[in-house]
């Protein structure tokens, strides 16, 4: 090789920085796996983390035993800082999707330096493993259906998780007034089942409080209460 020339990666093609995710896969998960393997996680470890997250999603439980991740034991004094940070992040993501802010707080709690955290989280975002916009969309759909939250309640939760305002509003754009009213009615019907023995004025007061705490406005609350009581 002549001086000044750069070696071509195996198989030909453009040389790639060790900070760029590998290309060539249209499937985001496959691309993320390739990228993680490229940055120090062998395929078995990557698959183990993926399987752990899938199992946790099915059962709702946090995996009791985590797969061994190479060169990233947080308790090892000789561990590479980026490998440690990567291991912490992957263990969090194996249980459930997290926002960048949540992961950054987890790294801070383990005394990972800020510049190391930024490098690892930037890489995870590039690989598609950290995606606040997608998390916000999924959160809105799930929480409104299961918890009957208002738009304001959802907005408050996502802000607490560190999602940016523009991404929150984009996720909420699919929730209209009819969806809001339906969520409030569903919540009222559910709560009234346990209030049948109460006096009417007590039911009214308690149900109004429940709806207000979920973020519903006075107009929606008054309409739902007039229908339900």
* Overall radius of gyration: 23 Å
Number of DSSP-assigned strands: 0
What global shape is seen?
elongated
Look at the structure and give the CATH class of the largest domain. Mainly Alpha
* N-to-C span: 84 Å
Strand content: under 5%
**How many separate structural domains?**
3
Number of helices: 11
CATH topology label of the largest domain: Arc Repressor Mutant, subunit A
Mean pLDDT comes to: 77
Summarize the structure.
This protein has helices spanning 28-38, 43-59, 81-95, 100-109, 114-127, 132-147, 151-160, 165-172, 177-192, 200-213, 218-228.
Question: Your description of this structure?
Answer:
This protein is mainly alpha-helical and 229 residues long. It folds into three domains: 28-130, Arc Repressor Mutant, subunit A (Orthogonal Bundle); 132-175; 176-229. It has helices at 28-38, 43-59, 81-95, 100-109, 114-127, 132-147, 151-160, 165-172, 177-192, 200-213, 218-228. α3 packs across α5 (114-127). Mean pLDDT is 77; it is low at 1-28 and 62-72.
Give the topology.
Blueprint: H1 28-38, H2 43-59, H3 81-95, H4 100-109, H5 114-127, H6 132-147, H7 151-160, H8 165-172, H9 177-192, H10 200-213, H11 218-228
Helix pairs in contact: 2-3, 3-5, 4-5, 6-8, 7-8, 9-10, 9-11, 10-11
